[in-house]
Design goal:
Elements lengths: L1 H48 L11 H17 L3 H13 L8 H4 L40 H9 L10 H8 L3 H14 L7 H7 L8 H13 L4 H10 L8 H14 L4 H10 L1 H4 L3 H14 L4 H10 L8 H14 L4 H6 L8 H14 L14 H5 L3 H9 L3 H10 L1
Helix pairs in contact: 1-3, 10-12
Length: 409
């Protein structure tokens, strides 16, 4: 009701303003015409009484008398200023006054009913407030943002990136069809399955900030180095952030592995497909683990190459963990370099886990790791599986016995 009352007041004020404006325009036009006519008369008088370029020579009293009579007649023809004011007042009185009948408009105060303070508001006031208010999560904008709705339909887990305010503002400011859909079509052309788009974009939502020409260049780089379509698909699915790195960075890291481990082109492609995350991993960490494997553990170049091709995850593990595990396996369990090289997955195990199970087998008399002797125990069965599976398949005892042993340590 208050909005209707505001509308009535504004409408009345506007009509009064229009009437006053028209009246002022009429008065100004009439007064201007009168002033113009007055100026013309004065100009004529001035022109008539303006002296000639030559000096007037009065030679007789009769000529002087005739000149005075002419000037008196001209001054009588000029309209005084007081008469002009009277004319303006008469013109203003002649303007008809308009009457504003409020009842004819149907907007009188009698027809307006103001709501009481405790009445229930039935009017929709959602458009009065700010369109989008700040929020701590992205769910607030799900009902109003078509881009957020489309990303959620693809299976993108946006809640994992809610703490990144810049990324959320980026999605809210973009149109899905115009700004985001070309990237999805590009991923589809690269071989990414449609049901994997959600996981891919959840792991790498920053692909939408990459330049489309750069993305095509990075794919052309892989194709130039003889990566087929299936290889590219596997690389992108295993490492969705691959496309965020420039071709110069990728080329530098591939060259590092090829030069330091003497890999052929086919071996480089095999290593990239097997563990594409290693290629984009932190270079300083890779160099530290390379030094640890070659210098601290004592593996030569050929053995290091075998470790790289069989267990590339070693270069992504913590340096201290892999050196501690190797030290226990080589010095305490008396395993040779060649034996560890044949079962390199033992270096991925935690030292604590390897130590507990090995010592338990020593207590049972089953710690036999030579495949040429009876009661052979493989390192894979030793470190893999749960405690129950280890007790049942390797130790041949109950899990309660193993738990009592762990408590006694």
């Amino acid at each position: 009701m208050w909005s209707m009352r505001c509308y009535v007041c504004i409408r009345n004020a506007k009509q009064i303003y229009d009437i006053n404006t028209n009246a002022l325009r009429f008065l100004s036009s009439q007064s201007i015409n009168n002033i113009v006519n007055y100026d013309k008369k004065v100009e004529n008088v001035n022109n008539s009484i303006r002296p000639n370029t030559r000096p007037l020579m009065i030679t007789s009293q009769f000529e002087e008398r005739d000149l005075n009579e002419k000037t008196n007649n001209l001054t009588n023809e000029i309209t005084p200023v007081e008469n002009l004011k009277e004319v303006e007042s008469n013109v203003s009185n002649s303007i008809p006054k308009l009457k504003l009948d409020v009842e004819d408009l149907g907007i009188s105060d009698e027809n307006i009913k103001l709501a009481k303070a405790l009445d229930t508001c039935t009017e929709d006031l959602s458009d009065i407030g700010q369109y989008q208010l700040p929020s701590y999560n992205i769910a607030k904008y799900a009902n109003t943002s078509d881009t957020i709705q489309r990303l959620m339909k693809l299976g993108v887990e946006l809640y994992k990136h809610e703490t990144n305010v810049d990324l959320m503002e980026f999605f809210l400011s973009k149109d899905f069809e115009r700004d985001l859909f070309p990237y999805i079509r590009f991923l589809h052309d690269c071989g990414i399955p449609g049901d994997y788009f959600g996981k891919f974009l959840t792991k790498n939502p920053y692909i939408f900030k990459q330049d489309m020409d750069d993305l095509h260049t990075r794919i052309r780089y892989l194709r130039f180095h003889q990566f087929d379509i299936e290889m590219i698909k596997v690389i992108l699915c295993k490492n969705p952030t691959w496309l965020n790195y420039s071709t110069r960075s990728i080329d530098t890291k591939l060259g590092y592995f090829q030069d330091n481990f003497h890999l052929t082109g086919q071996e480089v492609r095999q290593l990239t497909v097997k563990n594409s995350k290693l290629i984009t991993y932190k270079m300083s960490h890779i160099m530290e683990n390379t030094f640890a494997i070659k210098e601290e553990m004592g593996f030569n170049k050929i053995e290091s190459k075998v470790l790289l091709m069989t267990q590339p995850r070693l270069w992504m593990k913590c340096r201290k963990n892999i050196t501690d595990t190797f030290d226990y396996a080589h010095n305490q369990m008396k395993l040779s370099h060649q034996f560890i090289l044949s079962q390199a997955y033992v270096l991925l195990c935690r030292k604590r886990r390897l130590e507990q199970r090995h010592m338990f087998l020593v207590k049972l008399g089953r710690a036999q790791y030579d495949p040429t002797l009876p009661l052979y125990v493989s390192l894979k069965s030793l470190i893999c599986g749960t405690d129950d599976e280890f007790c049942q398949n390797v130790a041949k005892t109950s899990s309660d016995t193993y738990q009592l042993y762990l408590k006694s340590i």
